[in-house]
Design goal:
It contains four helices and no strands. The chain has about 180 residues and is an all-alpha fold. The longest helix is centred in the middle third of the chain and has 134 residues.
Amino acid sequence: MRSVSEIAAPLSDWTLAASIGLNTNILEINLINLILVVGILFYYGKGVLINFLDNRERTILNTIRDAEERHEEATKKLQKARIRLQQAKVKADEIRINGLTQMDREQRDLVDAADKDLKGLEDSKNFAIRFEKQRAIEQVRQQVSRLASERALEGLNSRLDNQLHLRVIDYHIGLFRALRNKPD
């Protein structure tokens, strides 16, 4: 069997137990208290801290994932906007080119119409000049004819006497008879 000395704690342990008391050294006590508080917090707060860190990690990962998705969406939208901008530039260039072409065509049409109108006016002017010239020529002819007839009549009246008048009548009567006697 065992002896009482073996069952009971050794004497050196008892002396240590007797020395438990109040320690008045602040630096040692604060360090010990701090280690105890940190140990207790670590032991009991480990689950809470791990849950908090896990939640924080998930939140950060979700935020990063959302930011990456928004970045991808923004990149896609930017690409689409660039494509639309390029299409708008192409369309604007087409409209500008069509406008310039239309303007040139209308300018040419306007110049052609002005040339045609000018040619028509020139033709009308030339026709009017020819008409007035023709009319003037006709008036001069009529005046010349009238003057020539008047002069011829005056000349005939001044040269015609009864004797000449009778000879001309006889001459024409002779011609008329010759034509009548002529066999067909």
